[in-house]
Design a protein that fits this description.
The chain is mainly beta. It has a nine-stranded antiparallel beta sheet with strand order 4-3-2-1-9-8-7-6-5, with no helix packed on it.
């Protein structure tokens, strides 16, 4: 086998092990649309994914986690987590208040091709997250987080520290 072929096989095996490891830790149950062997739904309902970048070293194929932070006009700070090609949750913090976590689920892409995620704050207030980067989250990307009673606020993404 050539060195290039060996590196390609090693990179593929590392990617598969990351996917397998990630399925055991996912905060939401697996979805048929996420299965690589399942028939994929139309693009408008398919959750966004991160395309792997070509690399000569297998270590660089690890999936990055992003943290997109912002502040609502009422003083609540939010931190939206992007992991494995999708937004998974928003953590809400405010001085003097307990921390709340709102799980997110992919809803659809809007007319501009921006993925929309839905959730709730304390199971009472509807939340929408619009990925303004169109699924291509990277440092400096923006999200817009809307709550039915608090309006909309932009957040900026950065690589999450582990």
């Amino acid at each position: 086998m050539t060195n290039k072929m060996t590196q390609t096989i090693a990179a593929g095996l590392i990617g598969i092990s990351l996917i397998v490891a990630g399925t055991g830790c996912s905060p939401t149950p697996p979805n048929v649309a996420q299965s690589p062997t399942a028939t994929q739904p139309p693009a408008a309902t398919q959750p966004p994914t991160v395309a792997p970048q070509p690399s000569s070293t297998p270590q660089s194929n690890a999936i990055q986690t992003f943290s997109c932070t912002g502040r609502k006009s009422n003083g609540w700070d939010y931190d939206a987590k992007f992991l494995d090609g999708r937004f998974t949750q928003i953590t809400w913090t405010r001085s003097g208040q307990p921390t709340y976590v709102s799980p997110l689920t992919f809803d659809r892409n809007n007319d501009q091709g921006q993925p929309i995620y839905r959730g709730a704050f304390q199971a009472a207030t509807a939340i929408s997250l619009v990925d303004l980067g169109k699924g291509n989250v990277r440092p400096g990307s923006e999200v817009s987080v809307g709550t039915e009673e608090w309006g909309w606020a932009r957040g900026t993404c950065a690589i999450a520290l582990k």
